[in-house]
Fold this protein.
Amino acid sequence: MSEPSNIAKEYFSKMTGYLSAMVGSQQDQINAAARILMEQIRKDGLIHVYGVGGHSYVGSEEFFFRAGGLANISPMFEPSLALSGGGQKSTMLERQENIGDKIVKAHHLGPDNVLIITSAYGINACSIDAALEAKKRGCKVIGISSVGFAEKTPRDFEARHSCGKNLGEIVDVIIDNHIPHGEVTVDLEGYPQKIGGTCNVLSCFAINWLVMETINLCLENEIEPPVWMCANVVGGDAFNKKYLEKYTPIIKAL
């Protein structure tokens, strides 16, 4: 078997460094967000998730309908923002104001709702509009984003919302996923552009960490969390049947 390449070693080292920094600094934020989600589960309510354009869209997919994940997740999918709808269009739309707020309005969010926004960089107009509208409607809002990336981005950068705010300055709780500024992390000698994407690995780690802490907190407080079993194991379909019957009528994406 071949030895790992230098690229593999450097990428592994950089990614484990970001993960270590996240785990070493975000427990309080994860705990605060998990308490919000636990209370929503206690009330038998839904948890709405919104992944803005580009690869941030993956965040809403990672939360939804996955083994070991919460069954009461209601994703606010907007196909026009996904890369499958066109890469350039996704970038253009996520930079447009007056879209994110319409997505929140279309899902009729209000004071009884919780919204999680996954945004790799926490600056784009589409994510800021959604956060502002949700807060205006009295929602509890949790952000999963890179605090450092947002802070290093000029306040007059073209992708920003006109208010100039970062996602973490609007939401009730911000979980810093430690995505580095520029998003990529590996240098190649003699080549000017770094390589090695980071956002999906780091965002998905933060998402699953939050979900696991929420489930554990529910159990500590004698609340039964709704959790999917893998459908591709014996007994999975039978186990999930009760959640499908309960949530299919009220979660559009199911």
